[in-house]
Write a structure and sequence with these properties.
The protein is mainly alpha-helical and 193 residues long. 74% of the residues lie in helices and 0% in strands.
């Protein structure tokens, strides 16, 4: 994502002053906020989390002179609100774009809930799970084991065993690996028809 260099350096100073009167504390908050927003975009599956975070800071920098005077409350909440808007705009943009590298555009899934396709996907999942290492299989099954409050409690217990960020990254990687395996399996089944 291209950066807009037309933002005046005094906007950066004003953002720091808005975050905290103590420059060192403000700088620490700035770095933490940047890290937090990048992680939020990453967890939401954005392809360029740092670029979107840069966009958030650029937008705030353009408006900080006006907003700072009237905004009440924690400035970080304002950044999160802008980040949510950037995410929604990015989501709309992604939905309207089709990669020119793809030979074919994927068909949307049936709204009727294709039972045969669901059965095939379940069969492929059952075939792919044993291909995971025992630890990864145990983790992914535990991560998705429960529903509602029990799911929250279960994930909290898992987070006690691993740092939350490590847990999320590990589960994400396992999920991607499973998804690739399931897609290959479904492709093989489609070619056998």
């Amino acid at each position: 994502m291209a950066r807009n260099s037309a933002i005046p350096p005094e906007s950066f100073e004003e953002i720091l002053a808005w975050l905290d009167p103590d420059r060192e504390v403000a700088a620490t908050m700035y770095v933490q906020l940047y890290h937090d927003l990048s992680n939020i975009f990453r967890w939401r599956g954005c392809s360029d989390p740092e670029g979107l975070t840069d966009d958030v800071f650029d937008r705030v920098a353009r408006k900080v002179h006006e907003v700072r005077l009237t905004y009440q409350g924690d400035a970080r909440r304002y950044f999160h609100g802008v980040a949510n808007n950037v995410f929604m705009e990015n989501l709309k943009k992604v939905k309207t774009q089709v990669s020119l590298d793809d030979d074919e555009v994927p068909e949307p899934m049936s709204a009727k809930g294709d039972e045969a396709g669901t059965l095939e996907m379940e069969e492929c999942l059952q075939a792919c799970l044993p291909k995971l290492s025992p630890d990864n299989r145990k983790l992914i099954l535990a991560y998705y084991a429960k529903e509602k409050q029990a799911k929250i409690d279960n994930r909290s217990e898992l987070a006690r065993q691993l740092p939350v960020e490590t847990l999320r990254v590990k589960v994400y990687r396992i999920r991607v690996s499973l998804q690739e395996c399931i897609e290959r399996c479904l492709e093989r089944k489609a070619n056998q028809r």
